[in-house]
Write a structure and sequence with these properties.
Blueprint (H helix, E strand, L loop, with lengths): L1 E5 L3 H10 L6 E5 L2 H11 L3 E6 L5 H14 L4 E6 L4 H9 L4 E4 L4 H22 L16 E6 L7 H13 L5 E5 L7 H4 L8 H6 L5 H6 L2 E2 L5 E3 L5 H4 L5 H13 L2 E5 L6 H9 L2 E7 L2 H16 L7 E6 L9 H8 L5 E3 L4 H8 L3 H4 L4 H15 L18
Parallel strand pairs: 1-2, 1-3, 3-4, 4-5, 6-10, 6-11, 7-9, 7-10, 11-12, 12-13
Antiparallel strand pairs: 8-9
The structure holds adenosine-5'-triphosphate and magnesium ion.
């Protein structure tokens, strides 16, 4: 695999190539858009990512990104600019550019962004070709609904939302499992003040896992929900075979009305496994430009992965923050509507620090109300013909 560097200035191109060392087998250099197009044509699918350096003009860079998007949409493009503006970000999003970095970025920042771009390209490569499209909900599936809460940017409230969404769904009497797929840094257990004796690691290690055995690995929360928590040691996470995640989720959905999944802020293999099993994707963002930019790119990536748009719900957290961006701006930027919002509230960090869901702490407050509305989005769209009675429950509520 190779990364293409498009940069007229020799010195900077060399610096970039050094920054990428170890990330890719080969670096291909092009001085202008023509050379770049020729290189991509000659290398075929070898090129996973392209980095446009700061000396390539804005107009050339956008045109080249547009041409690549047309011909080879699975090549991730990264743009390095001396100056960026809101307008440039908008234009860049339109032509599918995955990230924009400042030319003042150090080697580490370039490496991290390039690694992420390569990861996205790999994902798209694996899926665009032979990957089976996600099947329709209801088609040959067991009854549970799987809801994944995702955002490719960290810290926007995924764990807070997924824990509370699980509790909200269980309030109407449904049986709910909550899975922490943030295998390295998961904090569902902390947010719910749980002391689990088993984690998803035990489930993944268990040969021929069945629903009963899986039950023994779940930890019950006072609210009535069942959790499958992340390993306590991040190093243990690396030993989990991502292939087992899909079977764990299938077993859970066969036994629960809802399976809510919390995720890390990355398109990791377990997260892709969760997407495959998901009936609903709740995409979360906050009211700042980097967060919205990430959400836009994520929505584009989901489109490339053929995840049906009508099964995605966009939620803006801390939506009343007075930070300049307004919801109509966000909808324009996303070319998509925002389905629900959660207000900012001091009660959220209070409940998080206390380790008790806000659905229980302040069930009548505006935050709880907004989470009930998100739960309703998922419940109302339940396909007809599925009743709880058809399913034998292994998890009797006590
Ligand atoms: N609506 C809100 N009002 C006030 N604070 C909030 C709100 N939502 C989230 N927070 C705060 O933001 C912090 C981050 O939330 P959370 O841990 O759920 O994010 P995350 O997306 O799971 O992060 P990571 O990507 O690291 O897993 C929490 O400490 C929480 O208190
Ligand atoms: Mg989290």
């Amino acid at each position: 695999m190779a990364v293409l560097i498009v940069e007229p200035h020799d010195g900077y191109a060399t610096w970039l190539a050094n920054a990428l060392s170890g990330l890719t087998d080969r670096v291909i250099r092009a001085a202008d858009p023509d050379e770049a197009m020729a290189a991509v044509a000659a290398e075929g699918r070898e090129v996973l990512a392209a980095i446009f350096g700061p000396s390539l003009g804005d107009r050339d860079a956008l045109a080249l990104a547009g041409a690549l998007q047309q011909g080879t949409p699975d090549v991730s493009v990264l743009l390095i600019r001396r100056q960026e503006s809101g307008e440039l970000i908008r234009q860049a999003l339109k032509v599918g550019i995955k990230d924009i970095l400042s030319s003042a970025s150090d080697e580490n920042a370039v490496r991290t962004a390039a690694a992420k771009a390569i990861e996205i390209a790999r994902v798209l490569r694996g899926r665009l070709g032979g990957g089976a499209p996600t099947s329709d909900p209801g088609e040959g599936r067991s009854p549970g609904r799987v809801v994944t809460v995702f955002s490719s940017k960290g810290g926007c409230g995924k764990t807070f939302l997924s824990t509370n969404l699980a509790v909200a769904l269980s309030r109407s009497g449904a049986e709910v499992a909550l899975v922490d797929l943030d295998l390295h840094f998961g904090d569902v257990a902390i947010m719910l003040h749980l002391f689990p004796s088993h984690t998803i690691y035990d489930a993944a290690q268990s040969p021929g896992l069945d629903a009963l055995t899986l039950k023994s690995f779940l930890t019950r929360h006072d609210s009535g929900i069942w959790t499958l928590v992340a390993p306590t040691e991040p190093t243990v996470a690396d030993t989990i075979n991502p292939g087992t995640i899909g079977s764990i989720l299938k077993l859970l959905r066969s036994a629960f009305d809802y399976v809510v999944i919390d995720t890390p802020p990355a398109f990791s293999e377990p997260v892709l496994g969760a997407f495959d099993e998901s009936d609903w994707l709740v995409m979360l963002a906050t009211l700042d430009v980097p967060s919205i930019k990430n959400l836009k790119l994520t929505l584009q990536t989901m489109e490339l992965l053929h995840f049906p748009k009508n099964r995605i719900r966009v939620v803006v957290n801390r939506a009343d923050s007075k930070v300049g961006l307004r919801l109509p701006d966000v909808e324009k930027l996303l070319s998509s509507s925002v389905d629900a919002t959660i207000p900012s509230s001091r009660s959220v960090p209070l409940s998080v620090n206390k380790g008790s869901p806000i659905m229980l702490e302040e069930p009548k407050g505006p935050v709880a109300e907004s989470i009930r509305r998100i739960a309703a989005l998922v419940v109302e769209s339940q396909p007809a013909g599925r009743t709880k009675k058809q399913r034998r429950s292994l998890f009797a509520r006590s």
